[in-house]
Amino acid sequence: MVITVSAASTTSGPGSAPSLLAAIETMQQRFAAVEQAARIGYWRTEAHSGRQFWSPGMYALLCLEPGSVEARPEWLFDRIHPDDRDEVLQTIKRAMVMKEPFFYRNRGLTPGGAVCHFDTFGLVELGPDGEASALMGVVQDVSDKVAAEEALKASEETYRLLSHEASDIICQHGPSGAVVFISPAVTRVLGFEVDSYLGVTPWDRTHPEDLESAMAAVNHARRTGEQVTYAFRARHKAGHYVWMESTTRFIFEGPQRLVKGAISVSRDITQRKAVEDELTRQREHAEAASQTKTRFLANMSHELRTPLNAIIGFSDILNKELFGPLGSERYIDYANLINESGTLLLDLINDLLDMSKIEAGKFELHYEDIAVQELAAMCVRIVSRRAEEKGLVLELDVQPADFRFRADQRAVKQILLNLLTNAVKFTSKGGVKARIALEGANVQIVIEDSGIGIPAKMLPRLGQPFEQAQNEASRSQGGSGLGLALVKSLAQLHGGSLEIASLEGQGTTVTVTLPADKPQTSTDTASAA
Fold it and tell me: What is the reported pTM?
């Protein structure tokens, strides 16, 4: 822009030369600020003379100081990437012939050799004769925009490549839920072509029985923004249904969190579902069998206890010769054997009955104050005869000697008797030590023997019903394998635990821990897990 001011126009005022110059300078400053902010510049080339003008913004785009070089078309053309020069030249020539606006995007080269990207919007100025008199171009640096577009394109290409190769079905939904993209895996999994899924919602091909739960999960994701995973049956093109597991997350935009769409990833879980269903059937079958076994044991135990009590009672009468001498020592031995065998069988039946009650969740704990020294001494006396017959030393240590705690006395007695009986049974020399102590809020019952020990591989299985340590010495001692299982269950009913430490051939230490702070009055019915 060229302004000529005459000498006469020297008076001050709005229309004076100084005022006009100041206004022009202000406009130029504002335009320079706009150029800098928008990263634009402009050039103008006269068609006949070839003279060219660059704005300050144009110099900045070329990484030059304003006026540092002469604005010439050749200089500007040299800054265009060699591979783009022919296309730019053809675009300009075509615009001059057609006398119409033009646009081109080209790569530019900075003085340092770096590549940048420019968009040029141009106009053809026409002279009085209607021919092109000048060209003007507005140039914008779009390097960041091009980089973002290329990154987006690469990301989309990677996404499509991954979705094409993925075994899972990757699906993009629009705001209404309709499918706008679905990966080719849908053909392999469900038999449908990709195009047949576009524009429809997955609910159109969802099993009616699963529709409500699946829609509830998706609505929850839409409402909360959380990622949800749910299972449903999708219809196969062949007509049958395929179990699918889908993970869905919604995409929101703006401060009002408007739904832009959703992404879901679905996989075929038909085989997994079949395995789960089979496991469920097997578990239900096992539970039914266990209940049947429990009922059978309970019924049979009651049926057997009545005649056994008679056998034990009558054999005891014979053994004591209450109604007169039997006449032969062998009869007394037989009566004693009948009594011992009957008692052993009754103990086994009682153990079975207790286990069946525990498994059925019907074993009741009746809490009362227990004098530990008194109860433990009684249990030691019961097993002392067998210990003496084997020449074993049986020791009892209760600390403190007069302490009491609340528990089910019958259950604690059974724990002590089972552990002491096992220890004596599997110990051939040495002895058995019983230690009972109050340790903080717990009572610890420790039974230690010098017996045959337990193989290390069997330790994890002990405490399960009918499990016994398997070696030659243990097999010769017999037993049902219920003793430790019952001890463990009774301890767990109290909120306690059972621990076994053993070395084969060196003895075993069994520790039962019971809580000592049970409330003063309580009757619990529980099942040992």
Answer: 0.45
> For the chain, which residues make up each domain, given as ranges?
31-138, 166-268, 274-353, 363-526
Count of alpha carbons within 13 Å of 118, Cβ hemisphere only? 29
* Other Cβ atoms within 10 Å of 315 Cβ, number: 20
Domain range 274-353, its CATH number among 1.10.1070, 1.25.10, 1.10.287, 3.40.630: 1.10.287
* Kind and range of the H or E run holding 395: strand 393-399
The two most distant CA atoms of the chain are separated, in Å, by: 166
Residues 194, 85: Cα–Cα separation, whole Å? 43
CA gap 57, 353 in Å, rounded: 98
The pLDDT assigned to 35 comes to 64
pLDDT at site 520: 39
Distance CA 94, CA 133 (A): 15
Average confidence (pLDDT) over 213-232 = 93
Fold agreement (31-138, 166-268)? yes
Average pLDDT over residues 324-340: 81
Classify domain 166-268 by CATH architecture.
2-Layer Sandwich (3.30)
